[in-house]
Amino acid sequence: MNTFLENQNWRYATKKFDATKKITTEDLNTLKEAIRLSTSSYGLQPYKIIIVENPELRAQLQVAAYGQAQVVDASHLIVFANEMNFGEEGIVNFSKNMSETRGIPLESIQGYVEYMKSNIVNLSEETRNIWSAKQTYLALGNLLNVAAELKIDTTPMEGFVPAQVNEILGLDKLGLNATLLATLGYRHDEDATQHYKKVRKSNEELFITL
């Protein structure tokens, strides 16, 4: 646990990446698996993860991200996109996956399936979209934590225009909406931000015990 906390103190939102350093395939696969194993509401994972390697697309996305250099300089760029209007179809697909993965008949989990439907399908489309967007933040948390363990630098980003990202990547046609960007790679020696002390609330300010 001490190592985990040390790595949390080590990590920061990297402002300048070393464009010459690339993440290995092995480490990238570890990061992808960390995202895949992330917790989500009911285990539904109502989102897609887009890994953008094409340099031309990344140059376009930099414009949509207000010119932030991390988008093009980092080793990898990941886009988290929630599924719009997630509902019955997604729940049915999840139930089939559960049945196959656990080797159990669909009939045995029908009660759980109906429970999920009653809690999700009856919500307004706007509420469901807000809910699915929130799920991407859980996946981002896993990514940030595992990247720190691997000593891979990250920058989570909300500073972009979703509509532009959606258009550039064709997400609208896939029923998706960009909620978060994350750049991954290795800090540049010239990034002064790495030397700043981490600023957080004290325990007394942050925690309330009742």
Automatic annotation (TrEMBL):
Cofactors named for this entry: FMN
GO MF term set: oxidoreductase activity
Gene3D superfamilies linked: NADH Oxidase
Nitroreductase domain: residues covered: 10-186
Keyword Flavoprotein: yes
Transmembrane portions of the chain: none
Keywords from the UniProt entry: Flavoprotein, FMN, NADP, Oxidoreductase
InterPro entries for the chain: NfsB-like (IPR033878), Nitroreductase (IPR029479), Nitroreductase-like (IPR000415)
SUPFAM superfamilies: FMN-dependent nitroreductase-like
UniProt record similarity statement: Belongs to the nitroreductase family.
Protein name, entry field: Nitroreductase
Organism expressing this protein natively: Flavobacterium xueshanense
